[in-house]
Amino acid sequence: MNKILFRYFAVLLVFSSVLLFYTESHSKKEEGSDKRKGSPPATGVKVEKVRSETVLETISIVGSVESPRVSRIGSEVEGVVEKIFIEEGDMVKKGRPLLQLSNSQLKINILEAKAEEEESIKNLEELKAGSRPLEIEEAKAAMNEAAALWTKAKNEYERNKRLFKDKVIGERLLTNSELEADAADRAYHQKKFAYDLAIEGTRKEEIEKAWASVYVKKAKVVLLEDQLKKTTIFAPFAGVIVDKIIEIGEWVDRGQQVFRISQIDPIRITLPVPESVVGEINIGTEVDVQVNAFTDRTFTAKVYKIIPEAQKGSRTFPVILVLRNPDILLKIGMMVKGMLPYGTERKALFVPQDAITVSRGQNVVYLVDKDNKAKMVPVKTGIQRKSLIEVNGNLSPGDPVVTRGGERLRPGMPLKILNQ
C-alpha cells in the first residue's frame, strides 16, 4: 500500500513539473510576440464638425402633391379635326400648338371679305374727291337741255289751252300737252338738283355713311381672321397633357372639350395643419419635404398660402406649399411628408445623419478626442434638415464626429482621420 501511494505521488510530482515548464515557456513566447507586434493599428475614419444652427420647432404632416392649375381646353370654333400634334403624357410649353381644325372655307371667306373691304374704300375715296370739272359741265348741259324742253312743253300747253277755249282742239290733246309740260318740269328740276349737287360736292352724311361701310367690312375681315387663328388650339400654359378627348376626323362643336392639361412645375403640396399650430406658421417659410419614392432625397418647398377655413371633421387648416419640379420627379397624387417649422427660433446642434450609430439600443456618435481616439457619446435625435439631424448630448459646436467607419468602432480605439 505504501509503495502504491509513493508511486502515485511521484507521478503527480513529475506531471506538475512538466505543466509548470510548459506554461512558463508559452507565456514568454506570447510576451515576445506582443513586443514584436506593438500597439494595435489606427482605424481610418472620415469626420465632420458639429454645427450650431438656428431652427424652429417642426411638426411632421403627411400631405399630397397637387397641380396648381388644371385646364379643360375647349374649341372656340367648330370644324373637323385635321391634325393632332401631341398625345397623352406629353410635356408642352406655353403656346405650343395642340390641334388643327379644318379652315379652307374660312380662308375663302376672308378673301371675299377683303375684296368687299377694298371696294368700300374705293367708294369712300370717290366721295371724298367730289365731282370733277367735266362731270359738272355735263350736269350743267343736261340741266340746260331739260330747261329748254320744259319751256317748249310749257309754251305748247299754253297754246293748246287757247285753242281748246276756241274749240279748235279737243280735251284729249289739251290733257296730253299738260302731262308733257309736267314731265318736262320734273325732268328739269332733277337735272338742276344734280347740277347743284355737283357744284356743292358730296354731302357730309354720304361720306360718313361710306366710312361706316368701310368699318363694317374691316370688322368682318378681323372677325374671320380671328376665327381662322382659333382653328389652331394652343397650350394655355406649360404642363403635361393628362387627357386627350378627340381624334382625327371627328367634328368639334364650339365650346367642346378636347384636352385636359395639368401644370407640374411648380407643383403644389397641401398639408392639413392642426389648429394648435396653424397660428404660428409664416408665409414664405421653407419646408423640408420627403417622398416615399425618393427616400434618399429631401425637397425644399415654401409656404405659399394658408386657407383660413378648417376642413370639416378633421379641424385642420390646409396649408399650401409651392415646390419647383423642373425634372418632373414628383407626380400628381404622390404622398409626401412635410417637416413644417412653427413657433419661435432656437439654437440647436446638428450632425450628419451618417454620424448616428446604434449601440445597445440607443443612438450614439463617436467623437475624435485630443489623442485621436474614439469617444462614444449617447445622443437623442430631433428634427431633420436635409442631410443633417438635430442631436442632444455631451457635444459642442466644432467637435469632430465620425461620419464614415463608425459602425465598427469601440471606445478608446485609435483613429486616423482620412479627410484631415
Q: Care to count the β-strands? A: 21
Q: What's the domain count?
A: 4
Strand proportion: 35-45%
Question: Span from first to last CA?
Answer: 79 Å
Write down the Rg.
53 Å
Reconstruct the topology from this structure:
Elements: H1 2-37, E1 43-49, E2 51-66, E3 70-74, E4 79-84, E5 91-92, E6 97-101, H2 104-129, H3 133-165, H4 171-200, H5 204-229, E7 232-234, E8 239-244, E9 251-252, E10 257-262, E11 267-274, H6 275-278, E12 286-291, E13 294-306, E14 316-323, E15 335-352, E16 357-359, E17 362-368, E18 374-385, E19 388-393, E20 400-404, E21 415-417
Parallel strand pairs: 1-21
Antiparallel strand pairs: 1-20, 2-11, 2-15, 3-10, 4-6, 4-9, 5-8, 6-7, 8-10, 11-14, 12-13, 12-15, 13-14, 15-19, 16-17, 17-18, 18-19
Folded structure, characterized:
There is one protein chain. With 420 residues, the protein is α+β, with helices and mostly antiparallel strands. It has 4 domains: 83 residues, Beta Barrel (conserved putative lor/sdh protein from methanococcus maripaludis s2 fold), CATH 2.40.420; 90 residues, Beta Barrel (Elongation Factor Tu (Ef-tu), domain 3), CATH 2.40.30.170; 57 residues, Beta Barrel (OB fold (Dihydrolipoamide Acetyltransferase, E2P)), CATH 2.40.50.100; 119 residues, no CATH class. The chain is 37% helix and 35% strand. It is built from 6 helices and 21 strands. A 6-stranded antiparallel beta barrel has the order 2-11-14-13-12-15. It has a 4-stranded antiparallel β-sheet with strand order 3-10-8-5, with no helix packed on it. The chain has a 4-stranded antiparallel β-sheet with strand order 7-6-4-9, with no helix packed on it. Helix 2 runs antiparallel to helix 5 and helix 3 runs antiparallel to helix 4. The protein starts with a helix and ends with a strand. The relative contact order is 0.19. About 4% of the residues have low confidence.
